[in-house]
Amino acid sequence: MKRNVLRGVMTEAIGTFFLVLTVGCVLFSKAALAPLAIGLALMIMVYAGGHISGGHYNPAVTLGVLIRSKISWQRAVAHWVAQVASAALATPVARYLIDPDRVRTLSPSVRATCIALLAEFLFTFALVHVMLNVATSSDHPHNGFYGLAIGLTVTAGAVAVGGVSGGAFNPAVAIGSAATGLFASAKIWI
């Protein structure tokens, strides 16, 4: 049993690392196809590790799976620690790889903060909703589309509101992004 827990935690760490690394690299390089790259990275990691850990790579998703009683408290806490730790490691690596000249920190005004909060809530909700209904539902136990659906949900959200809120939809991404100045630390609660 301990081996399976460790394997799941390591899978969450690796998946979150590469998701947040991709976010950092595309944002630092100002890549035109950033939303697509981020959605594809998530999809790839979900397919690679979903069968091992559930492929959450996001503390909000882990919370949704915990509420649905598909994961224990102990495993959820272990996933959260792995997700946040790997996110904190990934963004400095992205900054080193890309070496941006100047980072534009996202720090919205009061009105824009309310809009960003709503945008983040709605698309985080959509992501958790999709994850729960395609990856933890017994209605379609042998589906092959769950990774695509999850990755495209993030892509759609990033295209739709990335310019408004930063398009994190993931506390681990927000923490990692704040660590390197992409998001203002004072606005991390959004």
Automatic annotation (TrEMBL):
PANTHER family: AQUAPORIN NIP1-1-RELATED (PTHR45724:SF13), AQUAPORIN NIP2-1 (PTHR45724). Its main location: membrane. Coiled coil: none annotated. Keywords: Membrane, Transmembrane, Transmembrane helix, Transport. Gene3D superfamilies: Glycerol uptake facilitator protein. It is a multi-pass membrane protein. It is found in: Membrane. This is Aquaporin. The keyword Membrane applies. The keyword Transport applies. Belongs to the MIP/aquaporin (TC 1.A.8) family. It holds the Pfam family MIP. The chain crosses the membrane at residues 6-29, 77-98, 110-132, 144-164.
